[in-house]
Design brief:
Blueprint: E1 9-11, E2 14-16, H1 19-26, H2 55-70, H3 83-94
C-alpha cells in the first residue's frame, strides 16, 4: 500500500480539489481509502455522533426536542421594543409601510 499527501484549499465554505489530486485519483484502484486531516489555528470542539445511535434513538431525541420547543414560553408581541427595534419600525413607517 502506498500513500501520497496533497494540500487542498478551502474557499468560501467549499473544499477545492486541485487537478493534480483528481489526476492521481483517476489512476487509483476502486478500493482507495482517503483520509482527511484538518489543521486550523482555531480551537474548534467537534463531537461525532455516536455510531451506535440507532434511527429510533434519533427519533426519540427529535421528539424530545419538539416537546421542549412546544413548551417554550410565548412572548407577546406587545412586549417592549428596544431602541433599535423602534428605529427600524420608524424607518419602515417613513417609507410608507403599515407596521
Amino acid at each position: 500500500m502506498s500513500s501520497k499527501t496533497f494540500r487542498l484549499e478551502f474557499k468560501e465554505g467549499l473544499l477545492i480539489i486541485p487537478s493534480e489530486v483528481r489526476e492521481y485519483l483517476h489512476h487509483c484502484p476502486q478500493q482507495t481509502e482517503i483520509a482527511l486531516m484538518i489543521q486550523s489555528a482555531l480551537h474548534i470542539s467537534f463531537q461525532d455522533s455516536d455510531p451506535q445511535t440507532s434511527p429510533e434513538d434519533f427519533k426519540m431525541k427529535w421528539n424530545s426536542w419538539f416537546e421542549e420547543v412546544d413548551n417554550l414560553e410565548i412572548i407577546s408581541s406587545d412586549s417592549e421594543v428596544d431602541d433599535y427595534g423602534s428605529a427600524l419600525l420608524e424607518k419602515y413607517r417613513s417609507q410608507g409601510l403599515d407596521v
